[in-house]
Amino acid sequence: MVYILENSYVQFLSHYNTCIRKMEVSPFRSSSLAIVVALVVLLLLPGSSSANLSKNFYSEKCPNVFKAVESVVKSAVAKEPRIGASILRLFFHDCFVDGCDGSLLLDDTPSFQGEKTAAANNNSVRGFEVIDDIKSKVEKLCPGVVSCADILAIASRDSVVLLGGPFWRVELGRRDSRTANFTAANTGVIPPPTSNLSNLITTFRAQGLSARDMVALSGAHTIGKARCTTFRGRIYNESNIDRTFALARQRKCPRTSGTGDNNLANLDFRTPKHFDNNYYNNLLIRRGLLHSDQVLFNGGSTDSLVRTYSQNNKAFDSDFVSAMIKMGNNKPLTGSQGEIRRNCRRMN
Ligand code: HEM
Ligand SMILES: *[C@@H]1O[C@H](CO)[C@@H](O)[C@H](O)[C@H]1NC(C)=O
Ligand SMILES: *[C@@H]1O[C@H](CO)[C@@H](O)[C@H](O)[C@H]1NC(C)=O
Ligand SMILES: *[C@@H]1O[C@H](CO)[C@@H](O)[C@H](O)[C@H]1NC(C)=O
Ligand SMILES: *[C@@H]1O[C@H](CO)[C@@H](O)[C@H](O)[C@H]1NC(C)=O
Ligand SMILES: *[C@@H]1O[C@H](CO)[C@@H](O)[C@H](O)[C@H]1NC(C)=O
């Protein structure tokens, strides 16, 4: 389904570009200089945010990559909807540590400790087997062509679409790192759930993402689950939480640290398997699960944006897509940097 959309969207886009071109050029017919300026602007605009990645990167090298990725993600999500959430989170945690370079996917080696056991990831990140399945399918189709970092980007998009969220064309051309850095992953670049609003704004700013991007990307918590240990402090100790909600969560998350730490709760209590804007509706009634969720609507600078997204699913979809593309452009390896891993768990 996604790859069909991909093709029809290409057609839509080329139609759209033709319209734009007509719109831009015809008013200036009298001046050839204006036409040249308009064409230069048109040529530069699409690349201005992301000089090194492109939507057509695999159109010649591996045109069926989308179909292959989607079919694996589709059966994994059909088996367990949460896996779509887990894959999306992998992309976030990869992109925030030394850029979107597939470093999170590397297992530990004698020469380095990988990122999988860093604080934000240990006993928490999941979905690596799905990435392995996609990789082996894509390697059979186009050996040595598609990076693990790009697979993560495409699989994240497919996960969002399969769970009912927006479609977008993924920017591609990333290459894979030949190393991972436990220390970099472990020292706060990925914000903890205890973050206050200024911590969140600062950690996203450090990755070139605005407060608006941060609020839109947090909407990813419309799907998936969190462990008791990540929200215990909030449900027992905080006052900006709906009482009924707190009591319900306490039933499966004991107060004492070390007991029931891994018990799970849905991040979105209403529609946890559906990618929608209910995350924001929950914040309005003080039913954000994580401390870092509720700080987005707690009398601070992001309240109005949370209200907007709660009332306008299209505004959320559109900002989420822009922010995903922006996050996906975070310091990719390109050209001859890095490599195309044959197995996402180890360097070649
Ligand atoms: C704003 C700062 C963020 C914080 C503090 C944060 C924190 C967390 C925490 C603590 C969990 C639960 C992990 C566990 O208990 O094992 C979680 C889950 C999740 N996060 Fe975030 N997150 C943030 C932003 C994001 C972003 C930007 C995305 C993706 C675009 C994302 C996607 C997810 C998803 C989908 C899950 C559920 C994963 C699953 O069920 O396996 N989060 N997050
Ligand atoms: C593109 O990649 C090259 C290295 O391959 C790098 O020097 C350059 O800064 C990158 N440009 C952007 C806009 O990321
Ligand atoms: C990761 O979690 C395991 C199991 O809980 C623990 O034994 C290990 O020490 C943790 N690793 C790190 C690096 O914290
Ligand atoms: C790993 O990350 C840390 C913290 O960002 C940095 O100081 C260190 O130089 C990095 N190590 C390597 C080998 O890149
Ligand atoms: C947010 O947390 C940091 C520590 O992580 C603290 O220094 C700062 O004062 C806090 N900001 C607010 C507004 O509470
Ligand atoms: C609640 O706060 C108190 C006082 O700061 C602290 O001692 C306790 O550990 C906290 N409880 C939880 C479950 O976080």
TrEMBL record:
<feature type="disulfide bond">
    <location>
        <begin position="62"/>
        <end position="142"/>
    </location>
</feature>
<keyword id="KW-0408">Iron</keyword>
<feature type="binding site">
    <location>
        <position position="99"/>
    </location>
    <ligand>
        <name>Ca(2+) 1</name>
    </ligand>
</feature>
<keyword id="KW-0106">Calcium</keyword>
<comment type="similarity">
    <text>Belongs to the peroxidase family. Classical plant (class III) peroxidase subfamily.</text>
</comment>
<feature type="disulfide bond">
    <location>
        <begin position="148"/>
        <end position="344"/>
    </location>
</feature>
<keyword id="KW-0575">Peroxidase</keyword>
<feature type="binding site">
    <location>
        <position position="94"/>
    </location>
    <ligand>
        <name>Ca(2+) 1</name>
    </ligand>
</feature>
<feature type="binding site">
    <location>
        <position position="115"/>
    </location>
    <ligand>
        <name>Ca(2+) 1</name>
    </ligand>
</feature>
<keyword id="KW-0349">Heme</keyword>
<keyword id="KW-0479">Metal-binding</keyword>
<dbReference type="GO" id="GO:0042744">
    <property type="term" value="P:hydrogen peroxide catabolic process"/>
</dbReference>
<comment type="similarity">
    <text>Belongs to the peroxidase family. Ascorbate peroxidase subfamily.</text>
</comment>
<keyword id="KW-0964">Secreted</keyword>
<feature type="binding site" description="axial binding residue">
    <location>
        <position position="221"/>
    </location>
    <ligand>
        <name>heme b</name>
    </ligand>
</feature>
<dbReference type="InterPro" id="IPR010255">
    <property type="entry name" value="Haem_peroxidase_sf"/>
</dbReference>
<feature type="active site" description="Proton acceptor">
    <location>
        <position position="93"/>
    </location>
</feature>
<feature type="disulfide bond">
    <location>
        <begin position="228"/>
        <end position="253"/>
    </location>
</feature>
<dbReference type="InterPro" id="IPR019793">
    <property type="entry name" value="Peroxidases_heam-ligand_BS"/>
</dbReference>
<dbReference type="InterPro" id="IPR033905">
    <property type="entry name" value="Secretory_peroxidase"/>
</dbReference>
<feature type="binding site">
    <location>
        <position position="103"/>
    </location>
    <ligand>
        <name>Ca(2+) 1</name>
    </ligand>
</feature>
<feature type="site" description="Transition state stabilizer">
    <location>
        <position position="89"/>
    </location>
</feature>
<dbReference type="InterPro" id="IPR019794">
    <property type="entry name" value="Peroxidases_AS"/>
</dbReference>
<feature type="binding site">
    <location>
        <position position="97"/>
    </location>
    <ligand>
        <name>Ca(2+) 1</name>
    </ligand>
</feature>
<keyword id="KW-0560">Oxidoreductase</keyword>
<feature type="binding site">
    <location>
        <position position="271"/>
    </location>
    <ligand>
        <name>Ca(2+) 2</name>
    </ligand>
</feature>
<feature type="domain" description="Plant heme peroxidase family profile">
    <location>
        <begin position="52"/>
        <end position="348"/>
    </location>
</feature>
<protein>
    <recommendedName>
        <fullName>Peroxidase</fullName>
        <ecNumber>1.11.1.7</ecNumber>
    </recommendedName>
</protein>
<feature type="binding site">
    <location>
        <position position="276"/>
    </location>
    <ligand>
        <name>Ca(2+) 2</name>
    </ligand>
</feature>
<keyword id="KW-1015">Disulfide bond</keyword>
<dbReference type="GO" id="GO:0046872">
    <property type="term" value="F:metal ion binding"/>
</dbReference>
<dbReference type="GO" id="GO:0140825">
    <property type="term" value="F:lactoperoxidase activity"/>
</dbReference>
<keyword id="KW-0376">Hydrogen peroxide</keyword>
<feature type="binding site">
    <location>
        <position position="222"/>
    </location>
    <ligand>
        <name>Ca(2+) 2</name>
    </ligand>
</feature>
<feature type="binding site">
    <location>
        <position position="101"/>
    </location>
    <ligand>
        <name>Ca(2+) 1</name>
    </ligand>
</feature>
<keyword id="KW-0325">Glycoprotein</keyword>
<dbReference type="InterPro" id="IPR002016">
    <property type="entry name" value="Haem_peroxidase"/>
</dbReference>
<comment type="function">
    <text>Removal of H(2)O(2), oxidation of toxic reductants, biosynthesis and degradation of lignin, suberization, auxin catabolism, response to environmental stresses such as wounding, pathogen attack and oxidative stress. These functions might be dependent on each isozyme/isoform in each plant tissue.</text>
</comment>
<dbReference type="GO" id="GO:0006979">
    <property type="term" value="P:response to oxidative stress"/>
</dbReference>
<dbReference type="GO" id="GO:0020037">
    <property type="term" value="F:heme binding"/>
</dbReference>
<dbReference type="Pfam" id="PF00141">
    <property type="entry name" value="peroxidase"/>
</dbReference>
<dbReference type="InterPro" id="IPR000823">
    <property type="entry name" value="Peroxidase_pln"/>
</dbReference>
